Automatic annotation (TrEMBL):
Alphabetic keyword roster: ATP-binding, Cytoplasm, Ligase, Nucleotide-binding, Purine biosynthesis
Organism in which the protein naturally occurs: Fictibacillus aquaticus
Gene Ontology molecular function, alphabetical: ATP binding; phosphoribosylformylglycinamidine synthase activity
Intracellular or extracellular location(s): Cytoplasm
SUBUNIT field: Part of the FGAM synthase complex composed of 1 PurL, 1 PurQ and 2 PurS subunits.
Protein name: Phosphoribosylformylglycinamidine synthase subunit PurS
Pfam families: PurS
GO cellular component entries: cytoplasm
Length: 84
């Protein structure tokens, strides 16, 4: 069994008004050392053992459903889950 951690973030060239609002709130709370905030999504997918290429499957899922390739980037980590 495998656990895949997917991180989806806006591309650097895309404005992030939600991140700007969070940064403004942090500054009002005296956390002025924060210079930028980008909001994203975190997903965990669990895969059963099988005869397939996990990287190919995750890339297909990310490009077709989990992210918007026009405005978002994604990265992921695959870890083998032992003993479940």
């Amino acid at each position: 069994m495998y656990k895949v951690k997917v991180f989806v973030t806006l591309k650097e060239s895309v404005l992030d008004p939600q991140g700007t609002a969070v940064m403004g709130s942090l500054h009002k709370m005296s956390h002025t050392q924060v210079s930028d905030v980008r909001i994203g999504k975190y997903l965990e997918l669990t895969f059963e053992e099988g005869d397939y290429d996990i990287d190919e499957k995750v890339n297909e899922m990310c490009t077709k459903l989990l992210s918007n390739p026009v405005i978002e980037d994604y990265t992921y980590e695959v870890e083998e889950v032992v003993g479940q």
